[in-house]
């Protein structure tokens, strides 16, 4: 190949993995899973965390390794309101201070470990992470969904999936990615727009199912979908979904959240709750909820298959219909930047609507050909 030809070839820039973890609120899972009187281990932020509930009902999160001799606190016991190390019984409080050493006359003045501030929102435990060590910003917590934990909605169907080989930014790119809904989730996106502002990034989408596909996701020619999905900070998304199946409308709420575990790995968690349709018996309601849980769960697994096999691309080659990928990444960069270094283009309001006309003309023709060839 000549030097001229080489210069015309687009190279993939894999970039460099951030050396820090995002500033903001991260969901560790359903709060009820930590309220059993036992210590729980959560892998995240390049370490192990210990989570436990004290006698007041408060959920506490500390670094999982004892500052004495490195014992694994997740293998210890809850004694009183403290977590006791299994190695030498040093007892740590939820404020990060060592409260007692049973065999010692006194506790060293500097016996402190790293603690993480917590909050419970929508029945889920959230913790604040900040490499700069700032106090948690409770003003930017995700909003409460007041009816979700009532009998108007089904209980959370909660799922956990370990992802290896991808940085968690791969999830965020989906916010601006219109075309993948056709190829990965088997739907026609008929309307697609984004708004990024402050600490939130929102995707508005309407779609119809593909009649040539029936293997989960958003497929199915008899269904239409209205979706509003907002990231509140770097790691917690609420997706409000309205599904119309032959005139029968169902409201679904999907939580998509993640915990970074390493430079190229994260724990994906997602929860689904379905508004119970009125006038139906409990058995039918449960059946509908299970079906939608399976459907949107399958949709998540379709994305996972992509993430686990793709490579990171710092310089994606885009066409007009690919949406505001670079603007979305600038928005996301604010969470990996010192607060004093955040630039206006990371947080200023930005709106963009993708013209789906050309894409749908081609896609409908392709689907018609697929059906004809059956």
From TrEMBL:
InterPro entries: Cholesterol_7-desaturase, KshA-like_C, Rieske_2Fe-2S, Rieske_2Fe-2S_sf. GO terms for molecular function: 2 iron, 2 sulfur cluster binding; dioxygenase activity; metal ion binding; monooxygenase activity; oxidoreductase activity, acting on paired donors, with incorporation or reduction of molecular oxygen. It holds the Pfam family KshA_C. PROSITE patterns: RIESKE. Its cofactor is Fe cation. GO terms for biological process: cholesterol metabolic process; lipid catabolic process. Residues 25-127 form the Rieske domain. Keywords: 2Fe-2S, Dioxygenase, Iron, Iron-sulfur, Lipid degradation, Lipid metabolism, Metal-binding, Oxidoreductase, Steroid metabolism. Homotrimer. The two-component system 3-ketosteroid-9-alpha-monooxygenase is composed of an oxygenase component KshA and a reductase component KshB. PANTHER family: 3-KETOSTEROID-9-ALPHA-MONOOXYGENASE, OXYGENASE COMPONENT, IRON-SULFUR DOMAIN CONTAINING PROTEIN. This is Rieske-type oxygenase. It comes from Nocardioides immobilis.
């Amino acid at each position: 190949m000549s030097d001229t030809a080489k210069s015309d070839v687009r190279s993939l820039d894999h970039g460099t993995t951030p050396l820090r973890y995002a500033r903001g609120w991260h969901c560790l899972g359903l709060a009820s899973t930590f309220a059993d009187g036992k210590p729980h281990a959560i892998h995240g932020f390049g370490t192990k965390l210990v989570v436990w509930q004290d006698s007041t009902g408060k959920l506490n999160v500390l670094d999982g390794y004892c500052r004495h001799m490195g014992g694994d606190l997740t293998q210890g016991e809850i004694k009183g309101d403290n977590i006791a190390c299994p190695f030498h019984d040093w007892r740590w409080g939820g404020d990060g201070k060592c409260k007692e050493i049973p065999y010692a006359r006194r506790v060293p003045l500097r016996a402190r470990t790293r603690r993480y501030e917590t909050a419970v929102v929508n029945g889920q435990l959230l913790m604040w992470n900040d490499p700069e060590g700032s106090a948690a910003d409770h003003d930017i917590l995700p909003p409460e969904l007041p009816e979700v934990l009532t009998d108007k909605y089904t209980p959370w169907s909660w799922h956990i999936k370990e992802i290896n080989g991808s940085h968690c930014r791969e999830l965020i790119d989906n916010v601006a990615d219109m075309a993948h809904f056709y190829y990965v989730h088997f739907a026609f996106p008929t309307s697609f727009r984004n708004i990024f502002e402050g600490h939130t990034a929102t995707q508005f989408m309407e779609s119809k199912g593909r009649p040539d596909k029936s293997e989960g996701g958003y497929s199915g020619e008899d269904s239409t979908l209205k979706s509003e999905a907002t990231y509140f900070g770097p790691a917690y998304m609420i997706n409000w979904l309205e599904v119309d199946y032959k005139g029968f409308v169902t409201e679904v709420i999907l939580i998509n959240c993640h915990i970074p575990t390493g430079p190229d790995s994260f724990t994906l968690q997602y929860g689904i709750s379905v508004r119970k349709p009125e006038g139906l018996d409990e058995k039918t309601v449960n059946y509908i909820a299970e079906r939608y849980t399976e459907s949107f769960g399958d949709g998540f697994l379709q994305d996972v298959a992509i993430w686990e096999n793709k490579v990171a691309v710092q310089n994606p080659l885009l066409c007009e219909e690919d949406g505001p990928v670079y603007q979305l990444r600038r928005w996301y960069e604010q969470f990996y930047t010192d607060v004093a270094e955040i630039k206006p283009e990371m947080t200023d309001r930005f709106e963009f609507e993708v013209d789906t006309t050309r894409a749908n003309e081609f896609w409908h023709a392709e689907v018609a050909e697929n059906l004809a060839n059956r």
